[in-house]
């Protein structure tokens, strides 16, 4: 959508309201309003003649839906766009209640409601109104893609009496920027990225081979879902479980997949999702999935055991509610059209009902001595001088450490070098850092 289209819709709306007044004395022309059947289809089609707009190609919106989206945007670009509603309603509040519209606080603008859209595009014709109503239902493309929101009206009023608002994503799209949701209780997730490459990832052959299926799906999954026979049997999306000890590469792998296939990966903060209050966890999950659905995002649930763990025997009301929340989550995961990655330290902690629905389960083991040697060898920047007493193969053989722990050791040793105003990596620093890592994990360095 471009600014020219927004301006054209602004002029069309202004023309509609101007037509409701007599040209001579500017009195209200009631007959014109009572006979109004909505903005003509030809006018709508001429405003959005190109089927290759981003709204059409990315979200599949037709010209009516694009027109509704633009009407929702109008007050953000032209605050006087719906002033005609206020003028008419000040003349006869009850006769023109079908025009809808709301004001907010001290803001002088009039904002469109669902009823405003119904009137402008459907007029008073019941057939036209019913046709437009289908675009404003809660399951329509506009709401399913999260492009617009319908705020609740006053208690006891019809649903469409609520104000229509553009989503932050729609506003970003209109400005030609990329939408990045803010981390909050309504979207408890942060985007994760990495500057590393696949070549930097050190994993055993079996794990890399298991990841190939996931990468094949990311490359060719759409072909399967477009196949006339396969699409009837296959659910959209891909669900996988990464399991293994901390620091073995699960988060890095998720980030690398996002980089390779140019999809945002969001790590979900389960501390904001799981609530002690009955029904709140389900509400938080709904907000999360509603935001992420149909956006080609990947959701990464780290330390997923707290939410995806085994269900309990229903010995109390709280147990029943907890199991209901797990069942709800299970359904949303199964219906999610994108990539979902669950990460857990132990596979056995996961509910079997989840495990059955994974397309793959991928084990990230503690690296053996040879893999640890590769991690040590790749770890230090080339412009640092390694003490000749340091034998990475011996260190790898002697100390069982995951990649994340080795990264912590690198951070410590390079900081120590900078603090000495040199670029030398000392054996004493490595040994001290290893002892620190072992103590953190309740181990004793051998």
From TrEMBL:
SMART domains reported in the protein's UniProt record: AAA (SM00382)
Domain AAA+ ATPase per the UniProt entry, residue ranges: 236-368
Keywords from the UniProt entry: ATP-binding, Nucleotide-binding
Keyword Nucleotide-binding: yes
Single annotated GO MF: ATP hydrolysis activity
Superkingdom, natural source: Bacteria
Coiled-coil parts of chain: none
Pfam family, one: AAA
Family that this chain belongs to: Belongs to the AAA ATPase family.
Record-given protein name: AAA family ATPase
Organism, scientific name: Mangrovivirga cuniculi
């Amino acid at each position: 959508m471009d600014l020219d289209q927004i301006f054209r819709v602004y002029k069309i709306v202004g023309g509609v309201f101007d037509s409701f007044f007599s040209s001579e004395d500017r009195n209200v022309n009631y007959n014109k309003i009572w006979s109004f059947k909505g903005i003509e289809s030809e006018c709508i089609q001429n405003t959005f003649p190109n089927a290759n707009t981003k709204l059409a190609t990315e979200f599949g919106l037709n010209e009516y839906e694009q027109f509704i989206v633009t009407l929702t945007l109008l007050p953000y670009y032209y605050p006087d766009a719906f002033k005609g509603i206020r003028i008419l309603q000040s003349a006869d509040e009850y006769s023109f209640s079908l025009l809808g519209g709301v004001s907010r606080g001290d803001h002088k603008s009039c904002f469109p409601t669902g009823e405003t859209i119904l009137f402008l595009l459907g007029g008073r014709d019941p057939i036209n109104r019913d046709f437009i109503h289908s675009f404003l239902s809660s399951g329509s493309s506009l709401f399913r893609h999260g492009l617009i929101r319908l705020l609740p009206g006053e208690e006891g009023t019809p649903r469409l009496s609520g104000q229509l608002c553009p989503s932050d994503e729609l506003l970003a799209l209109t400005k030609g920027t990329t939408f990045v949701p803010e981390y909050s209780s309504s979207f408890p997730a942060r985007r994760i990225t990495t500057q590393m490459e696949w070549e930097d990832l050190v994993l055993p052959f079996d794990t890399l081979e298991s990841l190939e299926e996931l990468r094949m799906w990311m490359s060719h999954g759409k072909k399967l879902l477009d196949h006339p026979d396969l699409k009837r049997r296959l659910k959209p999306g891909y669900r996988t479980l990464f399991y293994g000890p901390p620091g073995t590469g699960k988060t890095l792998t998720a980030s690398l997949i996002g980089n390779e296939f140019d999809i945002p990966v969001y790590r979900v903060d389960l501390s904001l999702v799981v609530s002690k209050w009955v029904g709140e966890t389900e509400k938080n999950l709904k907000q999360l999935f509603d935001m992420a659905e149909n956006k080609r995002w990947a959701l990464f649930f780290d330390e997923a055991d707290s939410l995806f763990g085994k269900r309990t025997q229903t010995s109390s009301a709280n147990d029943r509610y907890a199991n209901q929340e797990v069942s709800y989550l299970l359904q949303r995961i199964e219906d999610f059209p994108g990539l979902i990655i669950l990460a857990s330290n132990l596979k056995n902690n996961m509910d079997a009902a989840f495990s059955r629905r994974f397309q793959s389960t991928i084990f990230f083991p503690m690296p053996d001595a040879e893999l640890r040697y590769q991690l040590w060898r790749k770890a230090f920047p080339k412009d640092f001088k390694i003490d000749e007493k340091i034998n990475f193969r011996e260190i790898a053989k002697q100390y069982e450490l995951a990649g994340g722990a080795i990264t912590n050791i690198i951070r410590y040793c390079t900081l120590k070098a900078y603090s000495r105003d040199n670029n030398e990596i000392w054996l004493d620093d490595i040994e001290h850092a290893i002892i620190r890592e072992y103590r953190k994990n309740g181990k004793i360095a051998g």
